[in-house]
Each structure stands twice: as C-alpha cells, then as structure tokens.
Amino acid sequence: MFKKILFPINQSKEPLEVIHKTTEITRMNNIHLIVLSIIEPKHYEMNPIKTLEIFLEQAKKIAENFDMTYELIKRDGNPESVICNEAEKLNVDVIVIGTRGINLEANSQSTASKVLEFSNRPVLVVP
After folding, report:
1. Residue-range domain boundaries for the chain
2. Model pTM?
3. More confident residue, 59 or 13
4. What topology is assigned to 4-126 in CATH?
5. Contacts of 53 (CB under 8 A, 6+ apart)
6. Helix, strand or coil for residue 91?
7. Which of 83, 79, 71, 65 is closest to 119 using CA atoms?
8. 12 confidence band (pLDDT: 50, 70, 90)
C-alpha cells in the first residue's frame, strides 16, 4: 500500500487534531512519516515559528513513542506549492492534510482544496 506519507503543517490548530489520525495510519502499516513544516512569507511578521516548533516537537514525540520512522522538514513559501513540490521531490505515496471545514471546491481558498486541485499525488483530507 503506502510506504511514505507527507503530512504538512502550518501555524493553525488543525495539525494537532490530524497528527493523531496520521500517526495511527503510519504506525499500523509501518509507513515512513514525513512532517513538512511550512511558513508562509505573509505570516513572518506574526512570528509563527514558535507555534510550528511546538507542533514539530509534538509530532516528534508521537513518532518516537510509537517507534515510527519519520523525518521533519522545514520550508518557507506558498503552502500549496511547497506541499505539491515536496510531495513530488520526495516521491511520497499520499499527502495527508487537515482542513478547517468541508468546502473543498476548486474556488475555495483553503490549502487543502488547492492541494487537491494541483497535486499529482493522492490526497487524504481529514476534517
């Protein structure tokens, strides 16, 4: 089935809720988890780095507690572009992404809907 999962996170609270579901999937199936931390240039002035560091630390603890293989990657840029580019570059099998709502139509401004539209990799959206 899947050998590598890409799990992108940003400074919102959704990653905390989704990381538990993602680690369940990876742990039960011995899948390599890649946590991708993304800082958008427009949020530099908001200093989201501390929030992202907390998420990364929590992801790391969860992965270590379950003896999972994982890696943590940090990138700057437009989230949907970074996610799609990294998924391709890392040759992941699936992208697991959280969303605030259920509107995933093409005209939606959510990162999840844009990744669904532009990625050539399968995308699992967790509400």
Report:
1. 4-126
2. 0.81
3. 59
4. Rossmann fold (3.40.50)
5. none
6. coil
7. 83
8. low
